[in-house]
Structures are given as C-alpha cells and as structure tokens.
C-alpha cells in the first residue's frame, strides 16, 4: 500500500472507481510531469448526488461533502495516470471548482473548500494549490458541484 493510500485509509476515505467519461473526452491527459484531470461530479450509488442549486435547496455542508467526493474521483483518475501509484504524485498544483448556484449565492469558495481541505489532508503541504471557485448556472446532470485538477508527477 502506498503512503498516500495509507493516509486515505487513516482519514477514513475511499477512492471511487475511476469512471468512464460520459461524452467525447478523456478522463485525464498527461503532458510531461503534469496530469490534467477532467471535471468530476459527485456520485452516490452510481447516480449524481447531490443535484440542484446552492442557494435553492442544496446546503453548503452537503455541497462541501460533494466537493470532497469530486476530489476523490480526481485522485482515482490521477492514480490511473500515475500507473497505479499515488506516491508518484508530487503535488496538487491547481483545483478548479464549479458550483451550481443561484444568482444571489456567493459562497462558492466555502463549498470548494471541501476539495481543497481534502487535498491538504491527504498530501500535506504538497496538497496546497492554486484555485478558482466559480458559480455557474448549471452543471452536467444537474450536479451541485464539479471539480477538476492539475497535479504534478515526480
């Protein structure tokens, strides 16, 4: 078991299966030492969950947990990109989070902290990253949150 997988277990976190894309794209690309992971939406029991808008039914806490789940999906794809070895990930460089929001909702950064906090909990200082948290009118399948990332390989 890799150090990162041991840390995930210590945190009580489990990587989901690296799912197949739902459209005409690949789940990740690797260029040199960089892994670019496509946007991941939160899933529970095979379905997108939660769905809806922040500011109209989806709570901040529910969405933060969803952002964490999205980051775990990012890691599942990064593991495949790293040849099955999460210890090959040197650092998390950037996270971009999209929050399905009503026009008056302005707490997107708090929601995306679910992903950012997870990155730091798993990777320590190597998990500190640049970030954007963006409010959007809609996401695929009505997802409340979507997260993409750029990671660096050793």
Largest sheet, strands/sense/barrel: 5 strands, mixed
Instruction: Sketch the topology as an H/E string, one letter per element.
Output: HEEEEEEHEHEE
Mean pLDDT: 97
Q: Number of helical segments?
A: 3
CATH class: Alpha Beta
Task: Kindly describe this structure.
There is one protein chain. The protein is of the alpha/beta class. The protein has one domain (3-13, 33-153): 60s Ribosomal Protein L30, Chain: A. The protein has three helices and nine strands. The protein has helices spanning 3-10, 60-81, 108-123, and strands at residues 28-31, 34-40, 43-44, 47-48, 53-54, 57-58, 89-100, 130-136, 145-153. Strands 1-2-9-7-8 form a five-stranded mixed β-sheet. A two-stranded antiparallel ribbon has the order 3-4. Helix 2 (60-81) crosses helix 3.
């Amino acid at each position: 078991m890799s150090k990162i997988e041991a840390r995930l277990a210590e945190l009580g976190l489990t990587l989901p299966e690296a799912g197949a894309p739902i459209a005409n794209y690949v789940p990740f690309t690797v260029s040199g030492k960089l892994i670019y992971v496509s946007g991941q939406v939160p899933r529970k029991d095979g379905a997108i969950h939660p769905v809806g808008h922040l500011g109209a039914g989806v709570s901040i806490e529910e969405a933060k947990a969803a952002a964490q789940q999205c980051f775990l999906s990012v890691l599942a794809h990064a593991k495949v990109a790293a040849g099955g070895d999460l210890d090959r990930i040197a650092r998390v460089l950037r996270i971009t989070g999209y929050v399905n929001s009503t026009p008056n909702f302005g707490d997107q950064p708090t929601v995306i902290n679910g992903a950012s906090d997870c990155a730091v909990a798993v990777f320590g200082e190597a998990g500190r990253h640049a970030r954007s948290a963006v409010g959007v009118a809609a996401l695929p399948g009505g997802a409340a949150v979507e997260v993409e990332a750029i990671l660096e390989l050793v």
